[in-house]
Give the backbone structure.
Amino acid sequence: MTIVPSIQRRGVSLLPTSIRSKPGLAVAIAFLVLIVVVAASASFLPYDAYRQDLLHRNSPPSWNHILGTDELGRDMLARLAIGARVSLVVAVTSTVAAVLIGIAVGAIAGYKRGWIDSVCMRFVDSMYAFPDTLFAILIAGVVKGQLSQSSTDFFSPITALYKMSGGLFGVFLTLSFTSWLVCARIVRAEVIILRSAEYVAAARLAGASDLFVMRRHILPNCLPVIIVAATFVVPSAILLEAGLSFLGVGVDPPTPSWGAMIASGLRSMQSYPHLLITPAIAVGLTLLSINVVGDALREHFDPSFRRGGEAS
């Protein structure tokens, strides 16, 4: 018994044709590659992101410091590179966790239906009742307060991990708890459609267990919508991390973060605008590039979306 060929119809040969026909997509991918390279090579830059030089505070861009220095004389390019690493690590880890939680909840609710579906979806709806940012701030504040001060035996391993990560672990937990709702709804809707397919009914008649049907037939055919769901989570995770760091409940100083750099630059925007403009442009271009790539993925995997774009 083979998997329904829906994956083959939808195709996986995405980007070569799209890049040739859409130069904006090529630019977006090139920028994301640049961000990844800069983040990966942050430790090899000539300046230390944490080294203070009080004699050269708030220096404008120059040959010695391409993007200038901040209020403590730290190199902005080095700090921007570390901030890119923070954003990428948070985005990837929280997206993976959110997608896994969303897949589990959405698949179980869509396949079992009945009261299980009702309970799961009412919980999702209740989570949607809270504004995302406000809920994330609440969770981040609680996590930061507990893990930064807790010394009990139960929390000691988590506290050690939190302090070792410079607060990144708390941001990861916050985004994981708040970013899985979209994925759960998308996966549930797709599973409801697939569970009534003929090949699933044939597998059940052949004596296949629910776990086998889910693992062998349904989840592989949910892969396109899972990828689409991830494209929603990644930019929102980066933006939410920047927002939490901007408000002071994200990563702990002196770890650089784009949000914390924006908050710092906002205080001296009139005198030293480069402190605000540089991280703001980095956040904006990164989110724009991810959205362009995400739109290309959604257009490729969703035939109705592609037909709607062609009709317009």
